């Protein structure tokens, strides 16, 4: 067995000598007050107030006082967490930057959660949520959506977004599944790369005025809380933490990501905001990353109020900054600057640690060109909110929607059919967009998105209002929590079904974000399931439309439906995309980026180990531990069919530095144009640790005319077949592997074992 020598990490972003000179020159002129101020980020609400019409304005005197007193380096959030217009944003940023430069001589960096387009701008473009982007299996779409978001964000003079979210959505109970790219680390890593390049461009040292800085989130292990409840502790094996959960972040920083936001909770008993190993050793020292680590919302306070690892606020600051935090998101308390200064003066935090943090912040500001151009002019961005981005949003929604069931040829829905549209998601924009849409919880979406089509409106446009009857039966209580429902007399809906040729039941969830989206039962609401059961008694064909942020369990009603379509959270053009697909004008090409569970005790992911699925054991204790699922990861049907053949590889034996080219022929054997995502999996047949059953190693999307055949080649680096062993080291072991595409399998053999001494391959 060979092993490499330990080497210092090569910086992931090549050093720019001129930028470093500017950073050092600026740092050398700064007082301690200015340094700790640069490390502080407060909410914009502190800088102004609403007028009598409820419109927020910057109070120049108040803002000047705060910048003068505390030397604040960053501002975040939308005023009152409600989207203003683009023109108002332009005015806010102009006022803020003038005051910042006047009082500190350093531009402010403004951060905003632009999670699926212009989240917090009334007249911008909203794209499908990240879970939908993952369902497209289309890197190019991901990159273009990020580019458009960056363009519209820079148009309002905001240079920084807390996006993309690259936690692994491996527990469907967790309320932030839809903000991620699904359950697989390779998918998240590929989408992280695509989006970082889309947001920032190709040169992280010189980000132009059409791009912005990203903040990958939430580092690390945030997405699998033991209870399924947001911001609660996670327990993750050391091997999985390095091999799977770290992978998307490593991909993002290797692509030039300028900042990372930290996990609010704890992993394996240690709060991440206090974890020097994860924040400094893993992320900075072992990679050479020189970006900014920013806390999540007021999270340093959690170290003494919730996690109980600090005795008070000052102690929590000491722990977090020494662990590696560079910027403190302390929304409403700029006096934290005073406490931080005291910690430096009494030696609890070294001036070197402060200088390192401030250099990282200044470096990001120089890379963004903020010293030369702190603001932009909206008039210089003619594509803002225009047709080009609208078409892109529609394209993304179309490629993301997944056809899960199509029995008895219920689809396409033929023109002239009488359609009963029912269910709580049938006539509301809020459900289509999800959270982070105009407001934090998305609760005002219908107010701001009135010009777009709900599912009902899109059906009327496509099939004629005279052929579409809306009778919902269940609606959401907009004055209550996201899951509160109103129920009318189901008999009214049943009576309406009597004159219908087909029933389209629009089911799922209302919008929610973060902790308010916690649930106690993953099963879809009893009201909605009972509505379907009642309608099934009519004998009319039923099509289920699932509009949900996470896969809610529906195993009792799936057999009652002839068709099932999962639209997830497709954005403002989601309803238009849906009817184009249901009518057959477009073809389905989305695939599930997560495993859709059928029961609460089978929440395994697609890569589960063989030992997790124990079949019936005979004897005194007969039992069955077989894992069930409603639909598997990567599943998605189409109006056409594809045949895979001639799987071939360029080598059957390999060593760690080899590249294995895997080729397959894909033929459209149906009669309709389609796009197919070709997925490459691997299986390690024998390993020193129980191996995963299979792992996604590559994917490519190909468009095929009826009867057309194309060869798809996916290149696989041999070292991608390595895993993190029980000792925490990466290892590629000699032995056999299977490579699988569709129902085809090829065997390859590694001829020598190799173990890495470096933390990352």
Question: Topology of this protein?
Answer:
Blueprint: E1 2-3, H1 17-28, H2 32-38, E2 40-43, E3 48-50, E4 56-58, H3 60-70, E5 74-76, H4 86-103, E6 109-112, H5 130-136, H6 139-155, E7 160-161, H7 185-200, E8 215-219, H8 238-245, H9 247-254, E9 259-262, E10 266-267, E11 270-271, H10 276-285, E12 292-294, H11 302-305, H12 313-323, E13 328-329, H13 336-345, H14 351-367, H15 387-400, E14 402-406, E15 419-422, H16 429-433, H17 445-448, H18 455-463, E16 468-470, E17 474-476, E18 485-487, H19 490-497, E19 502-508, H20 526-536, E20 542-547, E21 563-566, H21 574-582, E22 642-649, E23 653-654, E24 659-668, E25 674-684, E26 695-704, E27 709-717, E28 723-724, E29 730-732, E30 735-741, E31 744-750, E32 754-755
Parallel strand pairs: 1-32, 2-5, 2-13, 5-6, 6-7, 8-9, 9-12, 15-16, 15-19, 19-20, 20-21, 23-31
Antiparallel strand pairs: 3-4, 10-11, 14-21, 17-18, 22-24, 24-27, 25-26, 25-30, 28-29, 29-32, 30-31
Helix pairs in contact: 1-14, 2-13, 3-4, 5-15, 6-7, 6-15, 7-9, 12-13, 15-21, 18-21
């Amino acid at each position: 067995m060979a092993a490499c020598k330990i080497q210092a990490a090569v910086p992931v972003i090549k050093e720019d000598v001129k930028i470093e000179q500017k950073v050092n020159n600026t740092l050398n002129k700064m007082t301690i007050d200015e340094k700790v101020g640069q490390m502080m980020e407060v909410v914009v609400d502190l800088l102004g107030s609403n007028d009598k019409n409820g419109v927020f304005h910057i109070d120049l005197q108040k803002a000047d006082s705060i910048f003068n007193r505390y030397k604040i380096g960053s501002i975040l959030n939308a005023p009152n967490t409600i989207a203003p217009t683009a023109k108002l944003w332009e005015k806010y940023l102009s006022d803020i930057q003038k005051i910042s430069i006047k009082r500190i001589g350093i531009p402010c960096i403004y951060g905003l959660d632009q999670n699926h387009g212009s989240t917090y701008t009334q007249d911008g473009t909203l794209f499908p949520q990240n879970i939908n982007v993952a369902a497209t299996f289309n890197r190019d779409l991901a990159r273009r959506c990020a580019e458009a978001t960056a363009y519209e964000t820079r148009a309002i003079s905001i240079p920084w977004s807390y996006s993309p979210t690259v936690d692994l959505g491996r527990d469907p109970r967790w309320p932030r599944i839809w903000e991620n790219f699904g359950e697989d680390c390779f998918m998240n890593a590929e989408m992280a790369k695509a989006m970082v390049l889309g947001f920032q461009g190709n040169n992280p040292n010189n980000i132009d005025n059409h791009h912005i800085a990203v903040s990958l989130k939430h580092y690390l292990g945030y997405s699998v809380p033991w209870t399924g409840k947001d911001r609660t502790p996670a327990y993750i094996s050391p091997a999985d933490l390095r091999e799977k959960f770290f992978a998307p972040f490593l991909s993002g920083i290797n692509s030039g990501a300028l900042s990372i936001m930290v996990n609010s909770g704890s992993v394996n008993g240690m709060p991440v905001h206090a974890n020097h190993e994860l924040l400094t050793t893993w992320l900075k020292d072992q990679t050479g990353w020189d970006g900014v680590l920013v806390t999540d919302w007021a999270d340093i306070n959690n170290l003494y109020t919730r996690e109980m690892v600090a005795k008070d606020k000052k102690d929590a600051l000491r722990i977090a900054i020494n662990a590696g935090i560079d910027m403190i998101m302390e929304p409403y308390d700029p006096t934290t600057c005073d406490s931080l200064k005291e910690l430096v003066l009494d030696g609890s935090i070294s001036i070197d640690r402060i200088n390192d943090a401030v250099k990282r912040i200044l470096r990001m500001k120089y890379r963004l060109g903020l010293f030369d151009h702190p603001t932009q002019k909206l008039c210089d961005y003619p594509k803002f909110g225009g047709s080009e981005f609208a078409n892109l949003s529609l394209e993304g929604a179309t490629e993301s929607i997944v056809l899960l069931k199509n029995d008895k040829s219920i689809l396409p829905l033929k023109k002239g059919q009488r359609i009963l549209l029912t269910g709580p998601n049938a006539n509301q924009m809020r459900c289509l967009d999800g959270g982070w849409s105009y407001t934090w919880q998305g609760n005002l979406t219908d107010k701001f998105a009135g010009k777009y089509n709900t599912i009902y409106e899109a059906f009327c446009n496509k099939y004629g209002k005279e052929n579409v009857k809306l009778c919902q039966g269940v609606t959401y209580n907009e004055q209550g929590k996201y899951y509160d429902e109103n129920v009318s007399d189901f008999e009214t809906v049943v009576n309406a079904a009597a004159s219908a040729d087909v029933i389209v039941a629009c089911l799922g969830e209302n919008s929610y974000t973060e902790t308010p989206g916690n649930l106690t039962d993953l099963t879809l609401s009893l009201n909605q399931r009972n509505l379907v059961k009642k309608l099934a008694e009519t004998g009319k064909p039923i099509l289920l439309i699932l509009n949900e942020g996470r896969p809610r369990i529906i195993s009792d009603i799936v057999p009652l439906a002839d068709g099932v379509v999962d639209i997830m959270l497709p954005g403002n053009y989601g309803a238009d995309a849906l009817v184009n697909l249901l009518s057959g004008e477009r073809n389905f090409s989305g695939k599930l980026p997560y495993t859709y569970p059928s029961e609460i005790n089978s929440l395994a992911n697609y890569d589960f180990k063989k030992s997790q699925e124990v079949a019936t054991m005979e004897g005194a204790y007969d039992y069955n531990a077989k894992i069930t699922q409603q639909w598997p990861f990567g599943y998605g049907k189409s109006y056409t069919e594809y045949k895979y053949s001639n799987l071939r590889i360029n080598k059957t034996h390999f060593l760690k530095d080899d590249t294995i080219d895997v080729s397959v022929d894909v033929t459209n054997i149906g009669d309709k144009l389609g796009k197919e995502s070709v997925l490459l999996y691997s299986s390690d047949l024998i390993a020193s640790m129980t191996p995963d059953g299979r792992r996604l190693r590559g994917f490519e999307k190909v468009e095929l005319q009826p009867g057309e055949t194309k060869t798809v080649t996916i290149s696989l680096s041999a070292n991608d077949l390595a895993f993190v062993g029980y000792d925490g080291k990466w290892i590629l072991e000699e032995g056999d592997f299977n490579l699988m595409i569709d129902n085809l399998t090829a065997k390859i053999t590694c001829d020598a074992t190799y173990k890495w001494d470096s933390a990352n391959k």
